[in-house]
Structures are given as structure tokens and as C-alpha cells.
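Figure 6 in text form: structure in, sequence out.
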């Protein structure tokens, strides 16, 4: 893959357009303008990271209003596949990121098959693209979470202070995943696991680079916020009839807020999967070898923009680039 890959070109153009629009040719020295600029860039990056999930959720809402129930599962599966292909073809996602999406897809589908068999929730019957009564679009919902996680990791140049050891995180995440299955036969350990997650990340903070400013946020707060937004999306999806909980079979009503705890625990699995493929980088330290390619490319692109160049390099190592890069990164900044 070269630097001329579609994903690189698209994000580089968005980066340049954002700079022209938000900076308007001069540094935003005034506090109000600075705040508004950073707020707008933060929102734009979040929207960009949510692209796949937002499109899939919108498709569910449209399908509920336009597609007969008997054909809805297959229609959503076809739409999900087309969306995923479109993300790649039009440069909204890279092949490297697709690995994470597929991993989430497999992990999520396995849990869906078991949980629907146990009656935790159910889908409309029927359809060709179904595994053990579970429509294949269900895996794409977990893939949407993976897509968001890996893209936000890149777009905001996330770096960490006091990140837990990867093997400890893997053990806790495995315990969380197994408990989703095991609590049907054994005592539910979710509160014990929740306490372990809190202890594991209690001192972990992440550095989030927005436009020019970098903010710090406790990882637990970030995980909690994402869990809340997934719960809100779940309400839209169940309203659209993508699936239903037992209490929603007669008439729809909002999903119980207690589900936020389940989504928070799922975030632990998500963080473990993403940082397994893209190791977490401590703040102020050099990149691990697996991420060095990102840094080399992003610095070349930033240097070209700082010098006023408007042409992308013709070749270079693979890797995604940030949406809005810092024009003068420090020697240790990563992408």
C-alpha cells in the first residue's frame, strides 16, 4: 500500500480543508475562537470515527419503515456488507482497520448465537443469511464498535499514562467475555469483574490530541461515555426492530439503563482487542515497532503541509493518518 491509498488521500484532503475553514488564515488566539475551533474539530473527528456505526444504525431505522419484516434481516445484512465494502473503496477505512472490525465481528457473532439461544434477546425469524437463528448483520454491530475504537485511537493520537500490563488486561477481558456465557449456569460475576476493571484502569489517563490542543481524560470516563452512547444507539436499534429483548416483545420501551454496565464491560473487551493489534503507547515515549510506520508517514505528511506542499508523496509505508494533524508535532508524538 502506498501513501496514495484512498484512505490517505481522503483524510489528507479533509485535514487541509479543516485547517482552511477553522483557522481562516490565522492562529485562533482569542480564547472563545480557540475553544470553538477545538470543539468543532473534536465533533468532526468523532463523527468521522462513528461513520460505519452511524450508517448502519440509520439503515436499521430506514429498513424498519420501508422493508417488510420477512425480508428485513437479509436486507440489513446486504446493506451492512455494502457499507463495509464502501468504507474500503471510498477510503473511509483501511485494510489494517478492517482486521479489527473482522475480529469484533467474529467475537460478537459467537456471543450472539449463544445469547439468542438462551433467550437473552431475539431477532425476527426468517432470512437466508442466518447462522443458528442469528442474522449475519448482528456481527456488523460489534464490528461498528471495533471500527469506532480503532479509528478514534488513530484520529486523536491517543497516548496513555500508567496503562495496565497487557496480560492483566487480557485476563480481565477474557473473564468478562466468559461471564457473558457463564452467568447462565454459574453465579453472575459482573460486579466483581466491574470492580476489577475499575481497579485496573483507576490510575490510567489518556492524552487526546484534538486540533492544536491536547486534553487529558481518565480512561474509565471515556469507557463510560462510550458505553452510554452505545446504549442510546441500542434504544434506536430495538425501536427499529433490529432485535428485541423479552420485555420488548409485546410493546417497545426503552432499554433498561442497567445495560450500560454490560456495555461498559464490553468496552473492556474492546480495549483489549484494539490494543492487542495496536499496542498502547505511553505518553512521551517512542513508538513500538508495530506503530512506527504510522509515525513516519504522518510526519512526512505534516512536514509537507507545513512547507506549503499540496502534493502527496508518491510512495511510503502503509498505515492510516490523522484527520487533523498537529502542524508542529513534538519528536515523540505518534499517530
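Output sequence:
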Amino acid at each position: 500500500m502506498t501513501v496514495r491509498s484512498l484512505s490517505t488521500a481522503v483524510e489528507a484532503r479533509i485535514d487541509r480543508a479543516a485547517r482552511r475553514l477553522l483557522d481562516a488564515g490565522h492562529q485562533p488566539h482569542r480564547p472563545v475562537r480557540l475553544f470553538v475551533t477545538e470543539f468543532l474539530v473534536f465533533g468532526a473527528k468523532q463523527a468521522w470515527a462513528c461513520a460505519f456505526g452511524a450508517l448502519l444504525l440509520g439503515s436499521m431505522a430506514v429498513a424498519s419503515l420501508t422493508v417488510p419484516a420477512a425480508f428485513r434481516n437479509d436486507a440489513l445484512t446486504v446493506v451492512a456488507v455494502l457499507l463495509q465494502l464502501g468504507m474500503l473503496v471510498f477510503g473511509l477505512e483501511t485494510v489494517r482497520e478492517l482486521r479489527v472490525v473482522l475480529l469484533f465481528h467474529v467475537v460478537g457473532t459467537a456471543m450472539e448465537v449463544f445469547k439468542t439461544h438462551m433467550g437473552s434477546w431475539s431477532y425476527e425469524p426468517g432470512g437466508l443469511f442466518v447462522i443458528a437463528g442469528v442474522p449475519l448483520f448482528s456481527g456488523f454491530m460489534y464490528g461498528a464498535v471495533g471500527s469506532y475504537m480503532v479509528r478514534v485511537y488513530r484520529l486523536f493520537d491517543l497516548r496513555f499514562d500508567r496503562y495496565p500490563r497487557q496480560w492483566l488486561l487480557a485476563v480481565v477481558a477474557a473473564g468478562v467475555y466468559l461471564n457473558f456465557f457463564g452467568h447462565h449456569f454459574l453465579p453472575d460475576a459482573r460486579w466483581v469483574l466491574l470492580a476489577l476493571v475499575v481497579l485496573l484502569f483507576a490510575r490510567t489517563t489518556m492524552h487526546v490530541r484534538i486540533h492544536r490542543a491536547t486534553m487529558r481524560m481518565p480512561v474509565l470516563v471515556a469507557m463510560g461515555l462510550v458505553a452510554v452512547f452505545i446504549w442510546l444507539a441500542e434504544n434506536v436499534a430495538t425501536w427499529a426492530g433490529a432485535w428485541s429483548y423479552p420485555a420488548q416483545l409485546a410493546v417497545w420501551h426503552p432499554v433498561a439503563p442497567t445495560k450500560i454496565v454490560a456495555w461498559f464491560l464490553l468496552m473492556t473487551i474492546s480495549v483489549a482487542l484494539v490494543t492487542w493489534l495496536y499496542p498502547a503507547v505511553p505518553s512521551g515515549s517512542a513508538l513500538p515497532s508495530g506503530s512506527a510506520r504510522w509515525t513516519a508517514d504522518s510526519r512526512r505528511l505534516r512536514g509537507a503541509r507545513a512547507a506549503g506542499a499540496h502534493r502527496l508523496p508518491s510512495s511510503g509505508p502503509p498505515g492510516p493518518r490523522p484527520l487533523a494533524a498537529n502542524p508542529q508535532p513534538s519528536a515523540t508524538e505518534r499517530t
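Caption detail: Residues 211 and 325 are 7 Å apart (CA to CA).
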